[in-house]
Specification:
0% strand, single chain, mainly alpha, 17 helices, 73% helix
Amino acid sequence: MLLFVHKKKKSFFEKKDQKTFSQWARVDLARFVGGIGGLWYPAAMLAKTGKIAFANQLRGLAVLLVMIGHLLLLFWHAPELVSAAVLAPAPQAEIPWIAHVLASVREINFGALGVSLFFLISGFVIPISLQTRSAGAFGLARLLRIFPTYWAGLAVQVGVLLLVGWVWNAEPDLSLRRVLANALLLFNFAHVRSIDTVNWTLVVEAQFYVLAALGAGFLREGRVSALVGVWLISVIGNLAFGRMGVMLGEAWATRAITLGSYSAALGFMTLGTVFNFHLRGRLSTRALSLLTGLGFALFVLSWAVGPSAAETDLIGVSYGLGLAIFATGYALRDRFRSVALFDGLAAISYPLYLVHAVLGYAVMRHAMAAWGWGYPAALSLALVLILATATALHVSVERWSIAAGRRVS
């Protein structure tokens, strides 16, 4: 059963011109307050957005998992990575018990688990956008969907880094080359570091959009052969990248790791497309099960033969768990109700994903090092500022870009 609701009139979110900025902000604040209080929205509330309930709620879960991975785990267990992202000094404090507990689950990378859900959701919903659009219109709509919000989030993070540098008398690496390379998602190819630490996934998303546009006919017709071809190319590509890193030396080894991870991630995203084909009646449930198993096996194989083979077990378990969660949600899709907490997180998941790392790291390190705050208080302040910033970006930029993308036919 499809969970789409055909909208005969403008949805709640399309009536932007009828509400002021402050009214929109109050709506989002109400959603979070309701979520924290454990309140449930009526199912019809979510239906008005025209979204598939299970995929939308999994988007909220995905961003929550990524934030746990970064703000609870990476912050404490990889201080050198945090220092590379922000300039504030590392806190001189004991690692809190919750970080110890989460780190004890060594088989799972919570950040990777959240990212795997994002990839599957994209692979699932993107073919829907291609059903009613030409490849060119689809590409333009995706550009409008991704870049305005991304640029606004990048501007916020550049401002945060400048402020942290001023406070701690340090000079952030914000050369024009680095900023432009990040703004255009070409930082890996320009051999400069990411600014927000998470935009590598946007590069994968953009590559998937190109792949989807080129194979629009295959996706509309539900051709499984196209997906199998992507999986096989991913394995062969990773095998080649692995050998490239060995043969061409250290300089190429880093590039090989990047290319290998992108190749594997693209193959994984198309597993979401398998579920899309089943939803549209192009595959039987038995074929869905067989193809999902085959695709995931080839995904793991692509890691095992590639330049990041040492991470195969961790990635396999984390992405495998993500696939299991997604498959369970899909199987129970008719039973999903709207939960305010996850709906609120899903609504701002994109800007939240963009700004949480740099802003969160900077705020927590400054609060602990300069003000002597404990970790719980510093984390609470960081979450308030992160949610407020993400909501402001959602209201001021993202909603406009979504509406502009929808007008592209």
